[in-house]
Design a protein that fits this description.
The chain is mainly β. Helix content is 5%, strand content 47%. It has two helices and 13 strands; from the N terminus they run ββββββαβαββββββ.
């Protein structure tokens, strides 16, 4: 185990054991979900620190993906890795085209609503939700926001999300601050 590394980004989660030979169920956060297997090594974020592991087999199963970690060959040992995030080095992530962002880049950004020709600080991005139709920014109140309410803002570029400025650490949205 090593100390926590700040250059890691979560790309999945081991959600449970599968069978008796050390296999684990995997919830991938990548799109497509099999894209998670393009990264190596994986870093498991345990409560004792991070641990580098290699995957020697994986397969699609009716309930999703399952994986086998090198050296983990029984159910009890595999169980110690359930509910653990799978992370990779940020440098391994592919470059995105202009106007595209990874979720981790949006977390913590200040959100300013441009509504009825006024600017309103409505908080910071706490997390994002995947809803199927579109992603949603969960905006938590901050010390400088107009109130202490949490807001859910659909991440729909050009309709609700006007501009993402990573340098200024700010997202400009068109959103009624009363919502």
């Amino acid at each position: 185990m090593t100390a926590k590394r700040s250059n890691l980004i979560s790309v999945g989660r081991l959600s449970g054991v599968f069978g008796i030979k050390g296999w684990l169920k995997l919830k991938s956060f990548t799109e497509p979900e099999e894209g998670i297997f393009e990264y190596s090594p994986w870093w498991l974020k345990t409560r004792h620190g991070v641990k580098s592991v290699e995957i020697d087999a994986y397969q699609q199963h009716a309930g999703g993906l399952i994986v086998h970690i090198v050296g983990i060959d029984d159910r009890d040992e595999a169980a110690s890795y359930t509910l653990v995030d799978v992370a990779v080095e940020k440098a391994q992530l592919p470059e995105l085209e202009g106007g595209e962002y990874y979720w981790h880049q949006l977390m913590g950004l200040k959100v300013v609503s441009e509504y009825e020709q006024q600017n309103f600080d409505i908080g910071t991005v706490e997390r994002l939700l995947e809803t199927g139709a579109n992603d949603v920014l969960v905006v938590k109140a901050s010390d400088t926001s107009i109130d202490d309410r949490e807001r859910l803002v659909p991440y729909v570029p050009e309709q609700y999300v006007l501009k993402v400025d990573l340098d200024a650490q700010e997202i400009r949205v068109s959103w009624d601050p009363d919502f």
